[in-house]
Write a structure and sequence with these properties.
The protein is α/β, with parallel strands linked by helices and 497 residues long. It has 18 helices and 11 strands. The protein folds into 2 domains: 387 residues, Amidase signature (AS) enzymes, CATH 3.90.1300; 78 residues, no CATH class. Helix 2 runs antiparallel to helix 3, helix 7 runs antiparallel to helix 17 and helix 11 packs across helix 14.
């Protein structure tokens, strides 16, 4: 087996036992990254070889001194480009921040470094995390490793593609309405959105502050648990960081699902746009969980069908407020004008892409006088009802399950002219963000050679239960072991955008 084919926990264990050096691992992943990057374009800022290798050498030197190995000792990790990295530009895939270099690391990046991770670059994304295909990047679209004519999902598409293609063993993404889970499903990897507040948002460039959450994209559930063990926990720098202590996520992997009650909300299986083939794969995954000892039963979440509508009012409203800071005065792009008002207009008009402008206008309208009650207040009421329905469902069930994405990866360019069709990609994922609960996507089969994802959701701060069930399913199936072949990535036809 080539080193770039190892999982993160396999890399960590081999480096910690000094069976292989962190530098050897880094070289293998750099070679793989260089082999696939021209075709996939997963990275906005791939670190140069010497910057990566110097981190790896520092890990080897620490081990040689007898220092204890961190949980991510020598593991090559990619970081979504809306998470701040000191001395390394953080663009949010926007022209407005194309040259912005943060003076500090996000808390999650500091924790990665402390655990011995080797940062290999910043990954592509939809601009300011607004999108479901990574086609809204101001720089270039990322392509799906399983079929480079198709999207990798979004907004964390670069992170998902990098992990699926073996350009990184692990990656961080952010999830506001499904932006970790949906690309994980479309790229055939594991994506975990923790409970809101479980992971610090300090250093995450905000999209919608009450919904955003950082989490891992990984090759298997063990790697996701390993990453969560590193990044989870209270952070005094983040006022929304929860005080609940992290669980023992790695130990939870052995618990299994016997005796767990799993609900399957009818609304998420019958939602408009859910491909029957994807629905069938999800049902088959639930049958596997039942064979493993779980009790699976259909249930109802009546307001779930309104979740997409509520999300696309709440999230743009928060975005219109958060993105007001990008005005050409303090940092980022500045386009001169005759006066300050003209400078604002020119800077924002040239700096923001079409989708970001669309969402700012939607959010500003929803918050405006005369429309606040009709839209924003009503959306928040729907959000509160969704949260109550989840609470009631979790009185009966330990977990809830659904498809992650309503379809497998769609062709590049297919939905860019139809925002509503693009927004529908999030129909199964937004409710977990509105309710603030943890959710995971894991591979559950293939349709037409493309991966599909099973989504599991748990009550707040029950990531251990979520990971236990996901690991049990994973052990009983082989979907997570399938990898897109390098030959396909290198030689696929030139169709698509």
């Amino acid at each position: 087996m080539n080193l770039h084919e190892l999982t993160a926990h396999e890399v960590r264990n081999r480096v910690a036992r000094r069976e292989v050096s962190a530098e050897e691992v880094a070289r293998a992943f750099l070679e793989r990254r260089d082999a696939v990057e021209e075709r996939l374009q997963a990275f906005i800022t791939p670190l140069d070889a010497e910057a990566v290798l110097s981190q790896a050498r520092a890990v080897d030197e620490a081990l040689a001194r007898g220092e204890s190995a961190g949980l991510l000792c020598g593991v090559p990790v990619a970081v979504k480009d809306n998470i701040c990295t000191a001395g390394l530009r953080t663009t949010c895939a926007s022209r407005l921040l194309a040259d912005w270099v943060p003076p500090y690391d996000a808390t999650v990046v500091r924790r990665l470094r402390r655990a011995g991770a080797v940062i290999v670059g910043k990954t592509n994304m939809d601009e300011f995390a607004m999108g479901s295909s990574t086609e809204n990047s101001a720089f270039f679209p990322t392509r799906n490793p399983w079929d480079p004519r198709r999207v990798p999902g979004g907004s964390s598409g670069g992170s998902a593609a990098a992990v699926a293609a073996g350009a990184a063993a692990l990656a961080l993404g952010s999830d506001t309405g499904g932006s970790i889970r949906q690309p994980a499903a479309l790229c055939g990897v594991v994506g975990l959105k923790p409970t809101y507040g479980r992971v610090s948002r300090y250093g995450l460039v905000a999209f919608a502050s009450s919904l955003d959450q950082i989490g891992p994209l990984a090759r298997d559930v063990t790697d996701a648990a390993l990453a969560l063990a590193v990044i989870a926990g209270r952070d005094p720098l983040d006022a929304t960081s929860a005080p609940e202590p992290p669980g023992d996520y790695l130990a939870a992997l052995e618990r299994g699902v016997r005796g767990l009650r799993i609900g399957a909300p009818r609304e998420m299986f019958e939602a408009e746009g859910v491909d029957p083939a994807v629905r069938d794969l999800t049902v088959a995954a639930l049958e596997t969980l039942a064979e493993l000892g779980a009790a699976v039963e259909e249930c109802r979440l009546p307001t779930a069908t309104a979740g997409l509508d509520a999300y696309y009012i709440v999230a743009p409203a928060e975005a219109s407020s958060n993105l007001a800071r990008y005005d050409g005065v303090r940092y980022g792009l500045r386009v001169p004008g005759a006066d300050i008002v003209e400078m604002f207009e020119r800077t924002r008009g040239r700096g923001f892409g079409p989708e970001v402008r669309r969402r700012i206008m939607l959010g500003t309208f929803a918050l405006s006088a005369g429309y606040y009650d009709a839209y924003y207040r009503r959306a928040q009421q729907v959000r509160a009802r969704i949260r109550r329905e989840f609470e009631e469902a979790f009185e009966r069930f330990d977990l809830l399950a659904s498809p992650t994405s309503p379809t497998v990866a769609f062709p590049l360019g297919e939905r860019t002219a139809d925002p509503l069709a693009m927004y529908a990609s999030d129909i199964c994922t937004v409710t977990a963000n509105l309710a603030g609960i943890p959710a995971i996507s894991l591979p559950c089969g293939f349709e037409g050679g493309l991966p599909a994802g099973l989504q599991l959701m748990a009550p707040p701060f029950q990531e251990e239960r979520l990971l236990a069930a996901a690991a049990a399913y994973e052990r009983a199936t082989g979907w997570h072991r399938r990898r897109p072949p390098l030959g396909l990535i290198a030689s696929a036809g030139e169709g698509g955008a």
